[in-house]
Structures
1.
Amino acid sequence: MRLTAEVLLRAEHYLNAYNDRELNLRGLKTPMIENLSILQDQFDVIDFSDNEIKKVDNFPHMKRLNALLINNNYVSKIAANLGEYIPSLTALILTNNKIAMLSEVDNLRSLKKIEILSLIDNPVSLKMSYRVYVIHRIPSLKFLDYRKVSRKEREEVAQWANSTAGKAFITSVAQEAASGGPGAASGGVNGVAMTLTDEQKALVRKAIEAATTKEEIDNIERQLKAGNFSFIEKFQVAESPSDGVDVVNNSAIGSRK
């Protein structure tokens, strides 16, 4: 179903638990975001969950909008200029989509007020250094994948970004963006050669040395073959303890402005 003016004007809307005006566009099988100018910027939250949207784009100027729920779609692309059109957005929930490239996540940097981001169950969330990279590139984040970004974690991310391995990884993502497809930052999948720094190779060896059972070694081998290097994260940047609250309730998203 296309988002025609008629569909948008007839859609369910209400005040949610946080007194935000929310528009419900769930489950319409819509393939794209369109015609939102008809709403005249009257909503704080729009729920696009359970549709067939492939790209987050095509927003008119909506200064009031502070939260987007786009769970369970087919999103693989994100427009680079979202912040120009939805400058007040503080929460973006993209759980269970098809985003595979960290360079797409870079496009969220235009959202200067974003504090809550979920990319759970996207291929990109399995990439090596995913969490540290996203926190580094989007410093306004307070919660990533419903986990609090603590002060200690920010310090560790800064150390990573200034390390030889971090700089090399950040450069590889830029190369990925320039080439228009997964490259060195992907770790190599389906026969694509992997490009790792000496420091990253050392971390892989350290993970193997730390394995205590054959099953753990087999698991590392499977992840290497799949191009998933997330298992070395604990040897690179230690998990930081939470400072108080360490998760955010999905129902509270609309209240963050």
Note: The longest helix spans residues 164-179.
2.
Amino acid sequence: RYCSEQVAGRLYRPSACVINAKASLAPHPSRTAARSPMSGTRSVALVVTLASTLSTAAALNVYPAASRTPLLVGLRNKVGPGVSTQRATGIKASANAPMTPSVATHWGVIGMMSILANALGRLVPIALEPFKLGGLSTVQWCAYAGTALGMAYIEGYKAFQLKFSPLVVTRAFTLGPEGGRLTPLRGILAPFYSMGLFHATKKRTIVSWSVSLAVLCVVAAVKRLAYPWRSIVDAGVVVGLTWGVVSMGVYYFRALAGKMPGANPELPPQ
């Protein structure tokens, strides 16, 4: 015989109960199949596997803490153990269905990619000037290549692929039906909402604005550099931005196919 216990609002796996052999409480034959431990274990394992691949679709009040995805664990930790995910974030959790995009979702991701692509269009000609004008020393060519490789790793991989791109896609999908965060203002400003400039946690808002202002200051400073150093710096930025656009597009199309990035959207409570 198996039993389950509810502790602190969380459902734990059934544990074996020691039954006195002399007890006369034998289970009814018709209930034997329904209480089969193997069938229940397989069902839970299947659901947990699906939930782990869909980071925005898990029910916090059903599955064990070890089976929750990083996205929903982060949300639960931020809003406290006594608050449900749907109440705190407005996201309707589901274990077997991807999040449905809305027009605002597409506008948020594509708009953000367009902003990056516009910056690329302005920087690429400057980054390619050394190949047209020449005049670089061996040290400067090494600096050119080193900047490109360094920014590919720091800006492209570490900043965009691991952090910013999945954040943008995940937040954009919270503007869909399951996300429950769509308003007229957020729909119009979806690219800026997706990058966390507003309607985000305090930490995310501060980080997003700080990074944006820092980028503007760096851009203003780089414009004052003489040739070829401006081209050397811009070459690294071009590589990083290109990596960012590609990674964001990959996350976007994978999310449309049903596989969410799994990033924490860092949303404030509803």
Note: The longest strand covers residues 2-3.
3.
Amino acid sequence: KIGPMGFPEVAALVGGMGGLCAYKTAQWHSEGLMDWEKATLEHAGGSDVSWAALVALRGGALALILTVVAIIYTNPPLQITGFSTTNGEMKLSLTGIRRFGTFTVWCWMVQGLYFSLALAASLGVSLPQPLIGLQWILFEISLAMALLVTIIVTFVLVPVGLKKGHPVHFMFTWYVLAMHNGNTLMMILELVLNRFDIHAYHYPYVLIYGILYVLFAWTNEKFGVGAFYYFFLDYTRPYAFFAYLGLFTAVSVFYGMAFWIDALFESHRIIGWLLVPASNAIMLWRMPEKN
């Protein structure tokens, strides 16, 4: 049953957010605040720490990502609980290309695109300026969204799933753990080794990425699997407007967290290195016992 604040209000929020992002991006670009000239091949492929370590990380990360993508596509159907705007909670069986619709897998594939461009740059491939700029943006999005995915899985999806009796055991297979935990480890190591920074004026791009996923989720619910993969995307719930507002706030907060981590590393490199093992504090490697 549609609550007092349903789809029209949510759509207005998403549309307004998208319009604001487009306006600010165009404005800051015209004012020369995006610093695209800094995105050189030297920044894209080099390292102030170890070029060899950077190449090893990028090659290994890309190999892992492609392996996991192949496993996801060929695995038996995944049974999960979906959230339909008309039928409420429903069981979904995801197989083949439909396995790529979750936000986690979206972010995983974005990391794959980033590491593809990054590895090419490190190996001396002469990337055109637009691709170097895209690589920079993908790095910023990937770091922020890796932190978001890891923390949301650890502190929201797994606890809520266990409490409501939803199947969560699949989240603890090695390849799903790679997407939930390895994603953050790889991106923090990338931050330590590469020459890119997290740019404050690139903030709209991470919001645009979130908006694109929302539009995909609406389309997938209407014309695809018939349900949302995440309960907080169901716009028929009374709190839907605030859930979406919270979603965009969370994306913003995690971009801010990535910005802070980058600043911390630049000013205190020893502390920055400690973030690699410290990141395990936000990860679950084994399924918790039910209370």
Note: The radius of gyration is 19 Å.
4.
Amino acid sequence: VGGSVILTNTKLVILAVFPNLVTVGGDVVVSNNDRLLRLGDNNHDAFPELREVGGSVVISGNPFVEKFEGFEKLRVVRFGDVRVENNQRLKTIATNAVTLGQMVRQHVLGGDQKSVKPFQNLHRIGGGVSISQNQALTEIHSAFPSLRRVDGGLTIGDNQKLEKIEDSFELLDVVQQQFTVSNCAVLEHVSNSFPKLRVVGQSFLISDNFKFEKVDAGSWTRLFRVGGSVMIQSVALQSVSFFLSLQVVVGNVKIGQNCTNLQSLDGLQNLRQVTGFVDIFPSNLEGNFGRCGFVSSA
């Protein structure tokens, strides 16, 4: 298809269309389908052979879809975004069991794949990623396992029931614009996610996740350079030890506002350059902060 595939305001209940579609030059949009229950059927997930999209992939405003399915072979989104937004009953963006159709194809063609991860083969996005305003979303698990580069920003925000982000974005190396995790009121845990992220081109913001208390399994531990500001505020973290590789911030460092559990600055021991101002709250926090125990603005 040289143009776009737009499925908006349809009467579809199950999205099992275009099983042989390989390339879309424009956008793929599945939005505002009030009757849609599934992004697939018992034989196929949505767009099972799609490998390339020239524009954006948008899954939004589908009030009865409860789990993410489809796009299993998509490798590249050249110039647009990937947006999963405002799907009111979407509960998980996580690994799905293989469908009957997939098992038949595996039997015929060979292979032993036991599960399908969200966007499991997608390695580059020419725009941004947004997982936002999905009011029933509780987990992001094993998502985007092959993604290495995002040329726009990455936002996970306003998902009011999101509790954990696990085993996701495991190969992501670069986000060219802003990185944001915000306004997820019950988010508690990020584990083995973003473990290879080295560069964020603009600001890095974790804010207004009031129960967010645990980061482990290498999450953010390779982050080296932030091209804007670093802001950690209104969270329940006790430390920022995951910043152990951070060396350059081309902006401000603002950490601790409304972070009542924050106990030290351990984790900032390799920070060498801050172009803007440093605002730590409370100001008497101690820790291994920079080469001489503190960092002054450059």
Note: Confidence is low (pLDDT under 50) at residues 98-107.
